[in-house]
Design goal:
It is built from four helices and ten strands; from the N terminus they run H-H-H-H-E-E-E-E-E-E-E-E-E-E. It is α+β, with helices and mostly antiparallel strands and about 190 residues long. The protein has two domains: about 15-75, Orthogonal Bundle (434 Repressor (Amino-terminal Domain)); about 95-190, Jelly Rolls. This is Helix-turn-helix transcriptional regulator.
Length: about 190
């Protein structure tokens, strides 16, 4: 999947916001293109393209860069100031697709400064699992399945969840989400210390 598959709500061009965030966070960390690319396991030319706004990142590439930079995923997206009351309809939100699975992630609420938690709505279809490499140390993931059935949790021992089931697991270990039924969706909260 590519950045062309990112559906903006607040941003006219999400690639530009991602590019600016990558440049900002790399400068803040005092790291070279080469070092960030190496840490993320991507080509330096790919990172250069992403920082220029010309790249087409998958959710896997973006997560790898976040881990390399020590930032939360939500920091890559420019979000408008939060209103007093916020409603996000089921068909709204910034969608980022997986490269290897029929999996979509929609950021519902980014944590304000000095608060470390983000909310996502996940939709997935049966097929390949969405495998995640470890996030930053101290990350916990909380998932409540809304519909369908899914294997969720640590890669070594995922749990089968049904509607309304909840699981929490360390996001700083390899983990996965695999839909077992069509129309599977969940709410996920990432928290970090």
């Amino acid at each position: 999947m590519t950045a062309d598959d990112i559906t903006p709500t607040a941003a006219a061009n999400p690639q530009e916001h991602i590019a600016a965030a990558l440049r900002r966070e790399r400068a803040r960390a005092g790291l070279s293109l080469t070092e960030v690319a190496k840490r993320a396991g991507i080509a330096k030319s790919t990172l250069s393209q992403l920082e220029s706004g010309a790249g087409n990142p998958s959710v896997e590439t973006l997560w790898a860069l976040c881990v390399a930079l020590g930032i939360q995923f939500a920091q890559l997206f420019e979000l408008p100031p939060r209103p007093r009351v916020q409603v996000i309809r089921a068909d709204e939100g910034t969608v980022v697709f997986s490269e290897h699975a029929d999996y979509r992630s929609i950021l519902l609420s980014a944590a304000p400064p000095n608060v470390r938690r983000d909310f996502y709505r996940i939709t997935a279809e049966p097929g390949e699992p969405r495998r995640s490499e470890p996030h930053m140390p101290g990350v916990m993931e909380h998932v409540v399945l809304g519909a369908g059935r899914a294997l969720v949790g640590l890669s070594e021992a995922p749990e089968e969840l049904g509607p309304g089931d909840y699981i929490a697991y360390p996001g700083d270990l390899p983990h996965l989400f695999q839909a077992l039924e069509p129309g599977t969706w969940a709410t996920m909260v990432l928290e970090s210390t």
